[in-house]
Amino acid sequence: MRLVSAFALLLMAGTAHAETLTLYTSQSPEIAQQTVDAFQAKYPDIKVEWTRNGTSQLLNVLRAEIAAGDVKPDVLLVADTINLGQLKAEGRLLAYADAKVGSYEKSTYDKDMTFFGTKIISTGIAYNTQSAKPVETWGELLVEDNKGQIAVPSPLYSGAALNHLHSVIDVPGIGWEFYERLAELDIAPDGGNGPALKAVASGLAKYGIIADADVIRAKAAGSPVDLIFPKDGVSFITEPVAILSTAKQPDAAKAFVDFLLSKEGQELVAKQGNMPIDPSVAPPAGFPKLSDIKLLPLDADKAVADDKQVREKFTEIFGG
């Protein structure tokens, strides 16, 4: 007798009996809807209910659910590996040894197969082309003329900003001194990449420390913004996906992971305006070659171990 997988049985049961896959994501609402729609088009018998917020806010909700013994999401699709690394260390992620990582660069997924990068998103310097001039390094931002004129997302809200903080604090020439100087220039990190980009595009700020795709999309749409990849390096995130160990629908969650890693999922990444991790999928227009960018590596294990004190020092610097 041929064995039928639990996931196949789920599909055979039809929508009337299909369970719901619950997703928590930090993707923007528009991008998240596109992602869910594309997945459901391929798996019409899986209903996806999704909630989006900044990565740190989502993790706060998840922590409250863990404390209450009522964890709702089956799968997380968030900005950075630091928060997922912490969940992994606590045994809260499900290892998926058969995830379709193919020949992807090993640095894009967890060696223990508990979370998987879905794209490359670097953080560079955005500037308003009508009020500011391009710079070549991070340090060139730190001048009196830019007092109160640099939009910076908060690492206490944004996963990309948290990843950036951990990536640069030990880099010579950037380090904690960069953030201390920002505070001296009356810069108050707040919110995520969206508000920071709006501040730069509207002229409220001359510069912003913002994820690449947001700026490139805005430029293509006609906003007076452009992006600099500083020669002293840029941080990057992979927007990883992970399945919770408490997932009520693990088979559907695995299908979601496989979709994001598939060529179809990677083509969606490029269509949405991000750099795919699949080298066979062409990046969207406006992106440089990865070989032309200096990427700043992140020691994820160290970041997890140091995260509490790093957040505390950041808060101390900016008086939050």
From TrEMBL:
The keyword Transmembrane does not apply. Residues 1-18 form the signal peptide. It comes from the Bacteria. The keyword Ubl conjugation does not apply. Keywords: Periplasm, Signal. This is ABC transporter substrate-binding protein. It comes from Oryzicola mucosus. The lineage of its organism: Bacteria, Pseudomonadati, Pseudomonadota, Alphaproteobacteria, Hyphomicrobiales.
